Amino acid sequence: MPNPSYCIIGAGLVGLNAARYAQESGGHVTVFEQTDKVGGTWVYTDEVGKDKYGLDIHTSMYQGLKTNLPKELMGFPDFPIGEQEESFVTAAEVLQFIVNFTDRFELWSCIKFEHHVVRVTRLMDSDKWEVIVKNLPSNTYETYQFDFVLICNGHFFKPFIPEIAGSDLFKGRRMHSHDYRCPEPFRGKNVVVIGGSHSGVDVAIASAPVANRTVLSHRHTSQLNIFNDKVIQVSEIARIRENEIDFVDGSKHPCDVLVFCTGYQTCFPFLSVDSGIHVEENHVKPLYKHCINIRYPSMAFLGLPFHSCFTLMVDLQSRFCIKFFSGAKELPSQEEMWADNRRDEEERAARGLLGKAAHMLDGDLQQRYYDELARAADIEPLKPVLTKLYDACITEKRNNMLTYRSNVYRIVDDENFVKIRGSGVSN
C-alpha cells in the first residue's frame, strides 16, 4: 500500500515515537492530542478533575517526581535521554526529552492539538477506520478516514478505587493519587495511603514531614524498606469508619484523608463495539504479541505490557507494528496469530498471570517478549543488558526505597553494566 494513512491517538512519548516510525516509512501521519502540549502524562498541571473543556485531566504528574528507572532505560535506542550525570532524572527532564524528540524528528506539523477523539469505527466496505474527532477550541466535529490506527493514549487516566467495607460512612476526604500534586494539603492531617507500589510509597514519604500521622497500607507480607520512621506501615484495610480505619492486622488509626494509590482501569471509550476489541479486568484482547488487533490487524495498541523497560519497549513495539503496516513484511495469517495468542495466554494462565496481570512481563517473560517481537518482524532486538539493569534496579528499590534513586549506572556493552555510584558494583 503506497503512502498509507496513520491515525495516532495521543502525543505523549508513545504516540510521538510511533509517529516517527510511521513517517519514516513513508506514511501520512496524523496525531490527535487532547491537550495543547506534547508529553502526555509527563506534563505537570496544578489542575485536577476536569479541564477547561470539561474533559478529565489526563496527567497524574506530581511535584518532585523522579523516574523510578534510570535514564539508561528511559531513552530510545538511537536517541538517549541526555548526558546528565544522574541516572534517575526528573519529570521535567523527561518532558524536555520528549520536546527534543519532537524537534529532532520534525513531528510538530503532524500533530493536531486540542483534538479529542470521540469515536473510532471500522468501515467494513473499505477496510478503513473512520475517526470522529472534536475540535475543542471551535467546538466542532471532524470526520477522517485512515488505513491504520495506533492507540497510544496511555492507560493511567481512569482511577480504580476498590470497594471497601464502610466506605460510605467515612467523613474525611477521599482522593486517588491521580489527583495528588503536592503534600501541602495534608499538613496537620492524619493521612492513610492505600497501596505499596511507586505512587503509594512516594505519596507516603512526601506527606510524612507535614502530616500529623502518615499510615501506609499495603499487601506486602513484610515491611517495605523505606527507612522512614514517620511512615507507619500496616496491612490491608478491614473496615473504614467515620474518622478511623481498621486494618487486617488488628491495628486502628485515625484518618482525615484517605489516598487511594490503587492503580487505573484500562479503557478506550472511543472504540466502537465493532472494533473487534474488548477489555476484561485490564486485559485488552485479542491481540497478537500484546499489540496488534487480531480481528482487524490494521489497529494496534502500544504500551500495554508493564513491569518493563517501558520506553525501549514501546520503541520496539512501534518498529514491530510499522514493519508490518508499511508492507515491509507480511503479517502472519489470522490463524497463526490466534494460535500464538492461545499459546501466550495458556502459559500466562499456568503462571497465574490473569486479569490485571495479563500484560505483565513477569521474570523471564520480559526479555523473551522483546526477542519474540524482534524475531517476528526481523528488526533490531533490545540488548540483554537492558533487562539485566531493569532487574537490578527493581531489587535495589525493594532493598531501599528512600535512596535507590541516588544510584548512578553506566552501560558497558550489550551484556554488562556497572553501578558507578551506590553500594558495590553490579553487572
UniProtKB/TrEMBL annotation:
Statement: the UniProt record of this protein carries the keyword NADP: yes
Cofactors (names) = FAD
Q: Which domain of life is it from?
A: Eukaryota
**What Enzyme Commission number(s) does the record list for this chain?**
1.-.-.-
UniProt entry keywords in alphabetical sequence: FAD, Flavoprotein, Monooxygenase, NADP, Oxidoreductase
List the Gene Ontology MF annotations in alphabetical order: flavin adenine dinucleotide binding; oxidoreductase activity, acting on paired donors, with incorporation or reduction of molecular oxygen, NAD(P)H as one donor, and incorporation of one atom of oxygen
Instruction: Output the Pfam families linked to this UniProt entry.
Output: FMO-like
What PANTHER family does the database record attribute to this sequence? Answer: DIMETHYLANILINE MONOOXYGENASE
Family of the protein in this entry: Belongs to the FMO family.
Protein name, per record: Flavin-containing monooxygenase
